[in-house]
Amino acid sequence: MPDLVITPPAPVLAPITGSTARFPVRRVYCIGRNYAAHAIEMGHDPDREPPFFFQKNPDNLDFSGEFPYPPMTSDVHHEIEMVVALGRGGKNIPVEAALDHVWGYAVGLDMTRRDLQGQAKKMGRPWEIGKAFEHSAPMGSICPASEIGHPSKGRVSLLVNGVLRQEGNLDQLIWKVPEMISYLSDYFTLSAGDLIMTGTPSGVGPVERGDVMEAAVEGVGELRVTVS
């Protein structure tokens, strides 16, 4: 191995439910507007148009249970999502074989600097400034699919300070998990360690310092995050 001129970054390791083992993260893919009601509230047609994806960085993940309010914004929104963790990769994966590539599932939050995202949209620019900032992806532990199966329905909810903000069901996903995996694999070489955030139901809204977010995906788990 060659000498390194700087210290390499530490790998991002996600916790696993009921285990001391960890899941090494490679990439984080996020699908946009994958619930019809959320597409409508964001001003878009809910018809089944081709899916689109953006990425967060692995080191945007945060497992601490705290979300530090980010700089350069005054409008940070919560978006609860089920997260898919891949245990195998590949290219051109058929839909009917896609679930064989899934290692497990988790609850995550796609925190968004909505004001900065809105500015980027108006100017036709990428969204990363609103999506891929530090601590922007709070996430719970990964539940192995070998234990919980592959959830295709179940309540998705988020409370802020005990008040229900978001509610939906996994069976309302416009693009289902196998379709997302297959579609992504046509454009990227997927790999073990990749995560896919599967979209958020309607009800997204702002958080303030001191707020407590309680996210849950039925059959997968719960996540409690304090805005610090």
TrEMBL record:
GO terms for molecular function: acetylpyruvate hydrolase activity; metal ion binding. Residues 28-227 form the Fumarylacetoacetase-like C-terminal domain. InterPro entries: Fumarylacetoacetase-like_C (IPR011234), Fumarylacetoacetase_C_sf (IPR036663). It comes from the Bacteria. Keywords: Hydrolase, Metal-binding, Pyruvate. This is Fumarylpyruvate hydrolase. SUPFAM superfamilies: FAH.
